Amino acid sequence: MSNFDADRAYFEYLSGRSRLGLWYRRYYLYPRINRMLRGRVLDFGCGIGDFLGYRPDTAGAEINPHSVAHCVDNGHDARLIENDSIPWSDESFDGVVMDNVLEHIPSQRADAVIDEVLRVLKPGGTLLIGVPGRKGYAADPDHKCFYGESDLEQLMSAHGCRMRKLIHMPIGGAFADKHLTQYCIYAAFAKSMRGSPT
């Protein structure tokens, strides 16, 4: 399958998600994660733009050209990530969201992606990362690297960020991690006031 066909297939997968899933995101998940964000926000890996439609003053960056076109057609500020570069200038955003994105990135590329995300985030700004639990991670063959709470904290500490808050969605605990595909952890990190380490 070509990259174009794979991108199209993933766009169609995202577009075909259930109404219940959309209801969960719009009325339960997004209100909770939005409380951790202020000001202008970038949704890195914005997909079909659900969060862009929910939260004003939010832009999207995405590697899938079909998803970007869909977002733009719906009136959102969404731009294509090319050559691993986010098409905004340094320190453009007060917050960045990576919701179920990091686990799709091979571990050897994660540091470079985090550096690029931190480049567009203002010092003191919030990077909010959501990753699936064990059952959700195992359910998607495109997942490349599993992150638990301590893994996230260690990764972001190496980039000069400190954890501000951690929440479990839709519920927490070992049962959810083991039995709910939808279970995710969301960790909000503060970018160092001095910027990210070089």
Protein model, in words:
- With 198 residues, the chain is of the alpha/beta class.
- It has a single domain (3-190), classed as Rossmann fold.
- The protein is built from eight helices and seven strands; from the N terminus they run H-H-E-H-E-H-E-E-H-E-H-H-E-H-E.
- The chain has a seven-stranded mixed β-sheet, with helices on both faces.
- The longest helix is centred in the first third of the chain and has 16 residues, at 19-34.
- It is globular, with a radius of gyration of 16 Å.
- The N and C termini lie far apart (38 Å).
Give a short synopsis of this structure.
The protein has eight helices and seven strands, in the order H-H-E-H-E-H-E-E-H-E-H-H-E-H-E.
Keywords, separated by commas or semicolons:
198 residues, Rossmann fold, alpha/beta, seven-stranded mixed sheet, 7 strands
